[in-house]
Amino acid sequence: MLEEVERWLAARSWSVTDRPLHRIMAAKRATNQSVSVVLPALNEEATVGDIVAVIRHDLMHQVPLVDEIVVVDSGSTDRTAEVAAAAGARVVHRDAILPRIPAVPGKGEVLWRSLLVTTGDIVCFIDADLREFSSDFVSGIVGPLLTDPGVDLVKGMYDRPLGGAAGQGGRVTELMARPLLNMHWPQLAGFVQPLGGEYAARRSLLEQLPFPVGYGVELGMLVDALHLVGLDALAQVDVGVRKHRHQDGQALGRMAATIYRTAQLRLARGHMIRPALTQFERSADGFAPRTYSVDTEERPPMAEITEYATRKVA
Predict the structure, then answer these.
(1) Dihedral, 193, 197, 201, 206 alpha carbons, nearest 10
(2) Nearest 10 degrees: CA dihedral of 157, 162, 168, 170?
(3) Which of 19, 33, 223, 306 lies at 20 to 30 Å from 267 by C-alpha?
């Protein structure tokens, strides 16, 4: 590991207990910064309501840390929107945001559009499939942004159990993202959960970043933020254990291909390879190939979007 990364780990890796809530709230009052929480959601009716309810109870009613909770629904066919609204979130459909640009499927697309329907100086992203959710996920990663003006982006780090086995989750992280970062962006080798969906950043940074439309958004954001603001502006906070719905092996393969493609675009822009992935499924006649396109599209920095600039002026 680079000496720079060892120093960074000592200076920019914290535990949620390092910043008690009263200290975070004092910093929020002193700096007058607002906080938005965004949950990108697709068919998460089983979990989204509990997450919204915990955040509202702990971080809006008990202490006013969070100023708004927005669930961006990316086309759910279940009761995700109704459950989220009943729990107290403002629910916005992906297609209703910036309608002049047709939406495409993908997590990054939803996160990008969320910048247009939130107002916080700090934007905190939380995945909507978490179980046994704790509000520490929000306060832990928002805290450094409120207390330290030199920090621009904070990732959550946590244990990720798989079934009954501790630490066996995050398979795409270990098999794809971590090797890529260690080989090509070794300054980022200290991130425990580089692909984790729980992170917060200053709006002033997010609006300058391009957003890969799919699952490559987390890796792309880390790499681009490193180049834009430098390693010392990035941090991570241990928030405990993350339990969520796991995807099957083929879905993970498609995710890994998208993440590799995101990395490749940053390593050699313009050098195109075949943006597709063929997998195999057994059928009555043997193994049948299934070919999936790999997300290659990226949205430009939100600061370049006319509607966003107009909103900021207004």
Answers:
(1) 110
(2) -50
(3) 306
